[in-house]
Design brief:
A hairpin with a 2-residue loop joins strand 8 and strand 9. The protein has one domain: Alpha-Beta Complex (Sulfite Oxidase, Chain A, domain 2). The chain has 203 residues and is of the alpha+beta class. Helix content is 14%, strand content 30%. It contains four helices and eleven strands; from the N terminus they run H-E-E-E-H-E-E-H-E-E-E-E-E-E-H. The termini are far apart. The radius of gyration is 18 Å and the shape is globular. The strands form two sheets. Strands 1, 4, 5, 8, 9 and 10 form a six-stranded mixed β-sheet that branches. The structure holds the ligand Nc1nc2c(c(=O)[nH]1)N[C@H]1C(S)=C(S)[C@@H](COP(=O)(O)O)O[C@H]1N2 and molybdenum atom. The site of molybdenum atom has 6 residues, from loops. It comes from Actinomycetospora atypica. This is Sulfite oxidase-like oxidoreductase.
Length: 203
């Protein structure tokens, strides 16, 4: 039986996992490491997370204090701008909604900057970290997050390209204006929606 190119082409299209955004491929069980700076050694006992800037109640939590606030799990996909996606993975931590409820953003707070212990920064509109879209996490698939993946604690904002998810997070600043972070200054898109393929500035 002759199989035409067109037939194979069409089959390939329909076989594509609908969870993969355009231009992305599935890494399966593996999980690539992408780090611009050298991997820091962050002591979980000394680590803390602060939310400051345009908030009524600037707050700092130790890891113990964060864990006492409750536990949320994200189960789903993550997408890196370098074209890999990891499907149906899970992270455990606390929703940013819970933390912002405590810190109380002022009405003029419209952007956030995530900042790592290493000074890596990434910027987001506040709408991208509220309403069940962002988490501070300490476990991946039931195990502590490894150092190279941002352990002991990182942030995840999985509906956007993963450069918006700071590893070794230590501060979240609330601002009334947008302030480009590390990759945004270096030509990446300001928002980074994988479904709109917002990879680079101007996409
Ligand atoms: N501190 C810090 N956070 C970071 C990065 C980084 O270089 N430094 N890289 C970002 C990018 S581009 C991606 S794709 C993810 C990679 O996370 P992973 O190494 O755990 O896959 O972390 C993001 N957070
Ligand atoms: Mo990335």
């Amino acid at each position: 039986m002759a199989i035409t190119r067109g037939f194979l082409g069409r089959r390939k299209q329909t076989d594509r996992d609908p969870r993969l955004p355009p231009g992305q491929y599935d890494v399966g069980k593996s999980w690539p490491v992408l780090t611009a700076e050298s991997t820091p050694r962050v002591d979980a006992e000394k680590w803390s997370l602060s939310i400051d800037g345009l908030v009524a109640n600037p707050t700092t939590w130790s890891l113990r204090e964060l864990k006492a606030l409750g536990t949320d799990t994200y189960q789903g996909d993550i997408h890196c701008v370098t074209t890999w996606s990891k499907l149906d993975t899970s992270f455990t931590g606390i929703s940013l909604d819970t933390l912002l409820e405590i810190a109380q953003p002022l009405p003029e707070a419209s952007f956030v900057v995530e900042e790592s212990t290493t000074r890596y920064r990434t910027n987001l509109p506040i709408e991208d970290v509220t309403g069940g879209k962002a988490w501070i996490v300490w476990e991946h698939e039931g195990k502590p997050i490894s150092r190279e993946h941002g352990g002991p604690v990182r942030m995840i904002v999985p509906h956007l390209y993963f450069w918006k998810s700071a590893k070794w997070i230590s501060k979240i600043h609330l601002l009334d204006h947008d302030e480009p972070g590390f990759w945004e200054v270096n030509g990446y898109h300001h928002r980074g929606d994988p479904w709109k393929e917002q990879r680079f500035d101007g996409d």
